[in-house]
Amino acid sequence: MPSSNPRLNVVLDRELQKDLRIAAKKRGKSLSAAAAELLRDALERDEDLFLARLSERREKTSKRTYSDEEAWKAKLG
Predict the structure, then answer these.
(1) Residue 25 and residue 75: Cα distance in Å, rounded?
(2) Considering the entire predicted model, what is its pTM?
(3) Is there a domain that residue 5 lies in?
(4) What residues make up the domain containing 22?
(5) Within a domain: residue 31?
(6) Is 32 exposed, middle or buried, given 0-12, 13-18 or 19+ CB atoms closer than 10 A?
(7) Distance between CA atoms of residues 22 and 54, nearest Å
(8) Would you say residue 4 lies in a domain?
(9) Structural domain tally of the chain?
(10) Rg of the chain over CA atoms, in angstroms?
(11) What per-residue confidence (pLDDT) applies to 76?
(12) Which among 25, 49, 56, 76 counts the fewest CB atoms within 10 Å?
């Protein structure tokens, strides 16, 4: 059955391909599904790291801090 999802070709070395096969087998998924899941997780972690660094930079340069209570009041406002 053809898929409507975009395709991506990736070249893996033998060791990485072996690791992916093991990960897919553990998860009971196809190579493609396991690769997509692992890539999604890695991108989310990368985004989390970026946002954490941004937050740390802002903490260092910010002149005013807010308590949790103040922040939630402003958000729920």
Answers:
(1) 44
(2) 0.67
(3) no
(4) 14-61
(5) yes
(6) middle
(7) 35
(8) no
(9) 1
(10) 20
(11) 67
(12) 76
In a domain, 69, yes or no: no
Indicate the length of the chain as a whole number: 77
Q: Which two tokens stand for residue 14?
A: 């033998």
C-alpha–C-alpha distance, residues 42 and 50, integer Å: 12
Burial class of residue 37, CB neighbours in 10 A (0-12, 13-18, 19+) = middle
Amino acid identity at 43 = L
Report DSSP letters for 39-61, one per residue. HHHHHHHHHHHHHHHHHHHHHHH
- Short-list 30, 29, 44, 35, CA closest to 8: 35
Residue 31, classified by CB atoms within 10 Å of its CB into exposed (0-12), middle (13-18) or buried (19+), is: middle
Q: Which two tokens stand for residue 57?
A: 């930079």
Instruction: Return per-residue pLDDT of the chain as tens, 77 residues.
Output: 677 888 889 999 999 999 999 999 999 999 999 999 999 999 999 999 999 999 899 888 888 888 888 888 886 65
